[in-house]
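A.,

Following up on our hallway conversation. Structure tokens first:
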């Protein structure tokens, strides 16, 4: 039943996406998913806090030039790459991607793209963190261009309101439901102080702290985040459950305890607010898991390169 579901979700997408296939490597690298999963089990077992960062890498890749692994490329002389853009400075997990890619190169040289590796790693991260499984259609190719300017311009900002976020998501063929569902990825991981400190200090001429943030929670965050310049301190995006993929994120948001302004923004729109409040009851975990799977499949299909486009990188951080 899984394969028809995947093709059903692919139907109606662009021609490039139609060329992605379940079992794309069945003849050229039949054990690709098993190899990725085995290595991911080792990585997350050794460092459970990497679950959020590895999922975030895939998000940040797909929102700039599509899911083409351009986020993994190193900067070159005269060309600043995506990973060095300001919103990407806190990205982690690059060495884990290199580790998985090396295993695949040993088993199937010059066959599996870094873009597919990143997509599979994101799925397996969620599964290992007790989240849903979804089928991943493969066949993405790797891009040859990576621009810090594009990343700074196109990534959804932590301070985004619903109109801005809706516009950014729409540019990737993702809708309002995808926005509120994919925000649920904030159940995993931690965030650096500068990404939310503006909500705690000198928020506006009328308020020191963001009035949409629960005041008790704001006080608690201030004990960890002493100033806007505190780059070392980390806070859990889903306090008490940041290594487990679950629905508790929505319960925090419903109580006005989302860490980012973009989390709080979900309560300002009737459609997204209703979804937050429904999932926050804890009675619809299965609905969220299914919705998240569908939105991840949609996001994983954004702007993909297929066929003769792009290349299959030998090392994910440098073009061939």
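Then the amino acids I'd put at each of the 320 positions:
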């Amino acid at each position: 039943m899984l394969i028809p579901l995947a093709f059903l979700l692919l139907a109606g997408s662009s021609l490039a996406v139609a060329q992605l296939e379940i079992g794309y490597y069945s003849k050229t690298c039949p054990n690709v998913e098993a190899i990725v999963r085995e290595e991911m089990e080792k990585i997350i077992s050794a460092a459970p806090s990497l679950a959020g960062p590895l999922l975030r890498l895939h998000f940040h890749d797909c929102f700039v030039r599509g899911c083409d692994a351009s986020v993994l490329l190193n900067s070159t002389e005269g060309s600043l790459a995506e990973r060095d853009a300001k919103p990407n400075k806190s990205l982690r997990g690059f060495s884990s991607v290199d580790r998985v890619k090396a295993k695949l190169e040993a088993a199937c040289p010059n066959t599996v793209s870094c873009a597919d590796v990143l997509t599979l790693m994101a799925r397996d991260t969620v599964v290992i963190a007790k989240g849903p499984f979804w089928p991943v259609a493969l066949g993405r190719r790797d891009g040859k261009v990576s621009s810090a300017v594009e990343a700074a311009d196109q990534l959804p900002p932590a301070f985004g309101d619903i109109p801005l976020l809706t516009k950014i998501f729409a540019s990737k063929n993702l809708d309002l439901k995808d926005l509120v569902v994919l925000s649920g990825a904030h159940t995993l991981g931690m965030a650096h102080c500068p990404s939310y400190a503006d909500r705690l200090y000198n928020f506006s001429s009328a308020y020191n702290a963001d009035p949409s943030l629960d005041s008790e929670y704001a006080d608690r965050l201030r004990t960890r985040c002493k100033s806007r310049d505190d780059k070392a301190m980390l806070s859990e995006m889903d306090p008490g459950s940041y290594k487990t993929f679950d629905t508790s994120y929505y319960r925090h948001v419903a109580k006005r305890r989302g860490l980012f302004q973009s989390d709080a923004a979900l309560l300002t729109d009737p459609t997204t607010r209703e979804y937050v409040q429904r999932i926050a009851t804890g009675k619809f975990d299965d609905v969220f898991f299914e919705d998240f799977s569908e939105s991840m499949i949609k996001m994983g299909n954004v702007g993909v390169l297929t066929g003769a486009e792009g290349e299959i990188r030998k090392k994910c951080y440098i073009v061939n």
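The radius of gyration is 19 Å. Curious whether your intuition agrees with the design.

B.
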